[in-house]
């Protein structure tokens, strides 16, 4: 088998977009053994100052220290996550893998014709 052009490391996190983040979080905790680390309300720009347009339940994989699951619920009709849910239904929004060099990985994917949704690389220390 040929060596892939973009070498992926371990899974860092994946994000689910759902209608009811609390219920999905409870299922992952009670049935699958995930540990709830934090419930984080956020304003990504579609809510007024001091209000929130999304809610993240950040959970640790069973038996892991570094891998997380982020369960996201859009709180306003205008939020990017509520629109995504409306357009695509519930499910995986994205998966993030560890790589040795993020800039090289992004450029390799870009040259291969991958559609990138953003030119900005962001790192959230809590959820990846």
UniProtKB/TrEMBL annotation:
Keyword Metal-binding recorded: yes
Positions of the VOC domain: 10-128
GO terms for biological process, alphabetical: L-methylmalonyl-CoA metabolic process
Listed name of the protein: VOC domain-containing protein
Any GO molecular function: methylmalonyl-CoA epimerase activity
Cited SUPFAM superfamilies: Glyoxalase/Bleomycin resistance protein/Dihydroxybiphenyl dioxygenase (SSF54593)
Keywords on record: Metal-binding
Keyword DNA repair: no
């Amino acid at each position: 088998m040929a060596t892939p052009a973009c070498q992926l490391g371990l899974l860092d996190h994946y994000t689910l977009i759902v209608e009811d983040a609390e219920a999905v979080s409870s299922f992952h905790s009670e049935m699958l053994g995930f540990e709830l680390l934090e419930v984080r309300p956020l304003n990504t720009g579609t809510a007024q100052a001091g209000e929130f347009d999304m809610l993240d339940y950040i959970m640790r994989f069973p038996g892991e220290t570094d891998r997380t699951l982020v369960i996201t619920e859009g709180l306003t009709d205008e939020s990017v996550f509520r629109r995504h849910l409306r357009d695509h239904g519930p499910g995986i929004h994205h998966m993030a893998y560890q790589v040795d060099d993020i800039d090289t990985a992004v450029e390799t994917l870009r040259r291969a014709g991958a559609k990138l949704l953003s030119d900005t690389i962001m790192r959230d220390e809590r959820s990846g």
